[in-house]
Amino acid sequence: MKRIPIIIDCDPGVDDSFAIALAYSRPELEIVAITAVEGNVPASLTRRNALGLCETLGINCRVGFGMDRPLKRPYQRDASDTHGKSGVGSVVFDEITLAPDPLPAWEIIYQEAVKHEGELVLFAVGPLTNIAMCLMLHPDLPKHLKRLVIMGGGTFGNVRSTGLKAEFNAWIDPTAAKIVIEGTEVYMVGLNATHAAAVSVSDFDEMIALCGDKYSSGLVRELCRFSRRNHVENGSDNNCIHDALAVASLIDPLCVGFEHHYVYVEDREDAANVGETVIDLSDTSGKAKNCHVAMTVDKKRFADLLKDMCRHYASL
Ligand code: BDR
Ligand code: CA
Fold first, then answer.
1. Domains and CATH numbers, the chain
2. 259-296 confidence digits (pLDDT tens)
3. How far apart are the CA of 242 and the centre of ligand 1, in A?
4. Among residues 120, 192, 223, 311, which is most buried (max CB within 10 A)?
5. Which ligand neighbours the alpha carbon of 15 most closely?
């Protein structure tokens, strides 16, 4: 079977870790690189977590370090309430022997895109800083990609200071979000889809039971346990495995339904809704449709993919 080469640009992140684990469990996908960006926790931690995840799961790919701050604004907030102090819930990577690739994230992304001659699928499930860098330095990037799938945006948000207008990844770096979302044809898996795909407590229980306690399945089980507990006890949205749904949209096209619309990103710092992805749902603006927006989800298909992932790691 010819596998689809993929890169995951991420800010691990509990749901980023799920996305990586899900992708690596699939025989039809080949992870050629994982690149880290600032986001859920500071870049010093997302970088460490990217290496730690590869080492623990046994992923043999390039690991690239990217930006440690947004393009224009300062790095404002970490989300360790949702993702734990380390960024990967209760998991701490004590000793890491893997070394990062010497090239910056955006050069790795471009190199691999060119090398794979239009076959590479790029997932960007953190703030879009690295992808914007890549587009600014290599404007021909899109023509080398099969697809760019981002987790971000939506018709509502999850950042309180914006009146819940902006989604976290877009809000951390609205300048980058504007460059990427308005500059390329992206598949945008946003909060409409990820909230509709929220994992139930009983599905978490089943996933936990399916995981064994061996090394890599122990990691996945811990991600499930942390998400369940943080959701039930602290009311976090850890039951939305946002980033893994972006990966699921490629694995199972029936899992996520996309609509084609015009989208722009509010990047003005003085706007109350800075970071909002404004989606012309009724297509009244007359502007050319530029974005595939995930609007529907088959919740059961997604949960089934996550359960298959648990079975896979338990069987190793
Ligand atoms: C997004 O923000 C982060 O907290 C998650 O990792 C996900 O990528 C959801 O808004
Ligand atoms: Ca993320």
1. 4-314 (3.90.245.10)
2. 999 999 999 999 999 999 999 999 999 999 999 999 99
3. 6
4. 223
5. 1
